[in-house]
Design a protein that fits this description.
There is one protein chain. By secondary structure, the protein is mainly α. The chain has one domain (about 1-200, about 220-405): MFS general substrate transporter like domains (Growth Hormone, Chain: A). It contains 19 helices and no strands. Helix 2 (about 15-30) packs across helix 10 (about 140-195) and helix 14 runs parallel beside helix 17 (about 335-350).
Amino acid sequence: MAMLHRFFEKYHIFYGWVVVACGILVMSVTHGIVQNCFSLFIKPVTEALGFSRQSFSVCQTLTNVIYMVIALFSGKIFAKFRVGSLMRIACVVLPVAYFCFSLCSQLWMFYLAAAVVGVATAFLTFLPFTLIIAHWFEEKRGLAVGVCFMGSGLGGMLFNALAGSWVGTMGWQNTYRTLAIIMAAVMIPVIYLVLRTRPQEVGLQPLGGHPEQGQDEHPAYGYTLKQARRTVGFWAMILIALTVGFTSTSLSNNIVPHLSDIGFKPTYASGVMSAYLGVLSVCKILLGTMYDKLGMKKSTFIAVSAVIVGLTGLLLGQYAPAHLLIVAGASLGCAVGTVAYPILTQAAFGTLAYTSIYGFISAANSLACSLAPVFSNAVYDATGSYNGALLTSVVLTILALCLLAFVRPLAPGAQIEK
């Protein structure tokens, strides 16, 4: 580790960017596989084992609900346990649990494996890396968050293309096994050997930090969790996370099954999904840069509006040119759930109770993500189409745009009266 640090120091490369690169790799094989590849297994698993789509989608619901619960208590969890230690345990547990999907033949088996996957994923994705990036970057934080979280899109693009092909050639069970092996091969060495959660672990300061000016250069400011709960802005943020989480999940999860249902080949539908995930990785960097340059209000409005563009493209999915709207709208709109909320939390509520407040907002997003697949597939089972779910999502996204008026930026250093 010391040799690696000296190498980057020799070439004047800030080690925080190495940490960001670790985030890209870990996110690509965690969220990029667990969440972004889930839709590829809906049809083959349900057809092979005789489940309904709605009942199988509960697997993703369980994963998201568990993430939600952990997010609610993330402030207390990360205060009591070291982030790095939790990640080292989770990076071993996740591949084993994901491999177990290939051995399942009953719904309860899938649900049990999904529950373990949910716990492990929570300690490997957005919650820990949001905190790690905050430790490493005082300047260029929006860019660092965007670059780090682009891994979920890159991984989704790569593994959707690969897994979409593998499901057809070697079956869904061997595809689960192969993906689990890839997870372990990437995550374990990165987390154990390269990743460091704080710059002080390698004798550095955060980017933008000035140790010669004292530790009080950037004191904590803003709301406590109790104070934040008393504001309209907090509850508006919770509702925005609920509505946008629901609508963006409805958009991204239904691309493959909806396009294949309306007559396009599954390989083509997977290609559209891969294209979206590839552009998503770029849009995460774009959105992070937008927050650094345009500010909170404009950036969020543009990104949330993009969800409507993607949903419109999916509703017009029988026309091939509309698939460009799907890719463009989903790519920027679905970046909100990962890139926007950490930045919005600090911008609107400060740093004093950042982890706890972000945990509640992240939990609301996760709750919505868990409900969306169940709702969408229930609509499909009842009507034979996803159109009703997509139209509902358009209405909810418009509501989210209206709620943005109640979220206001907080001046850096502001102290809130008790």
